[in-house]
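can u pls check wat happens w/ zinc ion
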Amino acid sequence: MKKAYGIKLQGIVQGVGYRPFIYNTALKYGLSGYTANKGGDLVIHIEGTEEQIEDFCEFIYTKIPIGAEIHCIEKAEVEVEDAEGFRINQSIEEKETSIGIQTDLGICDQCKSDIRETISRYSNYPFTSCVNCGPRFTVTRKQPYDRVNTTMEPFNMCEECKKEYESPGNRRYHAQTICCTKCGPKLRLLNSDRSEVSGESIITAKEMIKNGKIIAIKGIGGYHFVCNALDKDAITRLRELKKRRYKPLAVMFKDIEKVKTHCYLSQHELNQLKSIQKPIVILEQKKHSNLPEEINPGLNKLGVMLPYTGIHLMLFDQDIEAIVATSGNTSSLPLAYRDNDALGQLCSIADAFLIHDRDILVPCDDSVISVFKGTTQVIRRGRGYAPIPTRLSEKSRHTILACGADLKNTFCIIKDQLAYVSQHIGDMANLQTMKLYKKLIKHYSDMLDFRPDVIACDLHPDYLTSRAGQEMGLPVVKVQHHHAHITSVMAENNYYEDVIGVVFDGTGFGTDGTVWGGEFLIASLKNYERVGHFRQVPMPGGEKSAVEAWRMAGAYLQDSFGDNFKNINLDSVKYIVSNEWPLIWNSVKQKLNCINTSSAGRLFDAVSAIMGICYVNNYEGQAAMELESVALEENGEKYAYGISIGNLIVVDFRETIKGIVTDLLSKKSKRCISGKFHNTLSQIVIDTCCIIRDSRMLNTVALSGGVFQNKRLLANVAGGLKRSGFKVLTNRTIPCNDGGISFGQAVSAASQQN
Ligand code: ZN
Ligand code: ZN
Ligand code: FE
């Protein structure tokens, strides 16, 4: 007997080839009916026997196209319409709906071959894309995702493109970004004075890269500075011009083989590199890699990606195997993405501009991920990940805008049952970043048809983001920074019982007005209780001490040895004392410009500086990253430490610091000392969690905070906790650093309001 069903798929179901996929599957199973995009959803009307329809559903739910993601399926029996054959209907615009905004997809293998083919109409055409790949989010003005609503709108399809666009079996059927040499965007190469460079743009650009030049290249979510990754002089010049002396630069390799030449690569890392998100993956660099050390000074890790557009693909040949590709911005300004801004801001750095006439509507940086024990950890959420929402366990009664943190900012929107975390926006260091922040909030609001009725923000009284939120005149929920880190882990893992939260972080405003960051909490989504923390030390010179790691070294040495530390015969001690330490310490004693901190980030800074590894953070996290880089892989040794149990558990590092100094004086290797320090910290977490478990009967630990980007620490802590019988939760697609704060604020506020 013939039956009919109406099916609604919610999630990432548009712009990823779902309709042609449905069409082909329906034909395969001999079914009739139709499918269409409706608002952000995909709707299907399907007719046939019960059995056929079941097979069809099984297939479309499980074999979903690349890039698609189903969040919710609704299926109901409807009246048989006796539809003839199967067709794809025009998109239906509808306001009241959950909406999936698509993310930008890296170029697929088939489009790569099309570009390389000599007789294809896509041969050597850098904007080749299909339903499985190409820009989405950064070119879409509004829903639904149709060509008229994208920046491809000005490009009228030629006859051949139109034919492909309209053929249901074709890979480019309803591919909104379809275009070719005849009808699509074109590349141009400009000198830094905006005059046209003659000749074939991409070939000339390639020649320039070979000759040591720096080119600003317009990609998917913005501009990159690009130069030859094997050219030490070019890299040095780029660093000098960009005033970025130490922060590691990302490298784009020609192919996987070239990656393997320079880096160790696990299967999971390889899968991530090749995934449609095409993120930057942090890999361990091989010792014999001949890349200049100017790329990642002092580090054994390298940020690596593969070409993700036709433009990138065409830059490589037998002479160019690797390019440095770093965000096109100057000093602390946001990523340049509009042509005029780029030509103005980047011209003192770039020798030439490789640009095109397809507009980028919103900037979106490359995503950065690292792989930990086979799972992905997103460190910077950008292209490929934003703005894909996270599904919550229940519908939120309120629509919430969470403002995020002032560093590594993202914001988060909760509407119904979905939480959208924005792309990485950056540090709120200047007006331009704040302008971008507001612009993106507006853009998301328009795309999602979203108006907040509750604002969530950090407790910090001076956060610019909190102020911006409070100015909106809506009810405000303030969420403590480290509580937000923990709720981000809980909601991401769909875990809603109370947890022991361990937050190791740089800076976060505590309820007592001091700077927190080495915290043990007991947390639910709604509430938290601080049950333990690192023994506090002063931050000499306040904010300055977050940059000048040697100041924290002084504070910790002073705490461990008292004034006598000045007699210790170490280079680092001489360095600290010669920097007018007596004067600095005097003002600490008088409580001038000095707050106390329990920050784990500052502890890493202190140890790194005491060991003479890094005295000053030229970029955030430098001292800690370099300390991790030298850590010996395995030694079971640990330093002594103290844990005192009173009203609060306090972890005391004075014996640890003394142990480190003793080892340094007896000329033990830095590899060994760093390894011992990591082991010590891990043991402290395990011991402290056991103490809390015994008194509070909790067996689940959530780990978060930027310090857990340290893979050595995370591996030791997570492994040790599991061996002690704990269930361990960590962040995955939500960053454990401050990029995840907005999500944590949003879910906590939702829970408090519901
Ligand atoms: Zn493709
Ligand atoms: Zn065309
Ligand atoms: Fe934080």
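The two ends are 46 Å apart (CA to CA).
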